[in-house]
Automatic annotation (TrEMBL):
It holds the Pfam family Redoxin. This is TlpA family protein disulfide reductase. InterPro entries: Redoxin (IPR013740), Thioredoxin-like_sf (IPR036249), Thioredoxin_domain (IPR013766), Thioredoxin_ResA/DsbE_sf (IPR050553). Residues 1-146 form the Thioredoxin domain.
Length: 151
């Protein structure tokens, strides 16, 4: 895992060292990224489905707290949000959205650039509807959870 120490939206400090021993789902996003926003409801459901498991859901955005705070008044994102993280995100190429799976030892095991797979359809009014599929991501998280931690 890329070493980091960053403060979340509420002022709690998180570090990569503290997350060792847990599976980490790291999402890179921005308020300016429509695909990031569209997949948020499915990412929130994914987080809820692991509420009782040893998984931590963290997100990094290059934007500052005030911009994200304003965004969160209209959108729900249940991950731990680490604003102002551009200097950490650059190590992953600054592409958003991006979802990174990190094992209990801190090794990056999966980097997915772009949104989760999505089925796009139209409703009766012709409005686009997006149905994101997190099954593959769930299978990979479950695999990481099933692995024994070896230090």
């Amino acid at each position: 895992m890329i070493p980091f120490v960053a403060e979340d939206m509420t002022g709690i400090t998180y570090s990569s060292n503290e997350l060792r021993g847990k599976v980490v789902v790291l999402n890179l996003w921005g308020t300016f990224c429509k695909p990031c926003i569209l997949e948020m409801p499915e990412l929130n459901r994914l987080k809820q489905s692991y509420a009782e498991k040893d998984v931590v859901f963290v997100s990094m955005s290059p934007e500052d707290k005030p911009i994200i705070k304003k965004f969160l008044k209209k959108h729900v994102f249940d991950f731990i949000i680490l604003p102002g993280s551009a200097h950490y995100m650059k190590d992953f190429g600054n592409t958003v959205p991006q979802t990174i799976l990190i094992d209990r030892v801190g090794i990056v095991r999966e980097v997915h650039i772009g949104t989760m797979p999505v089925k796009v359809s139209s409703d009766e009014k012709g409005e686009k509807m997006y149905e994101f599929r997190s099954d593959d991501l769930k299978a990979k998280i479950d695999q990481l959870l099933s692995e024994q931690q070896i230090d």
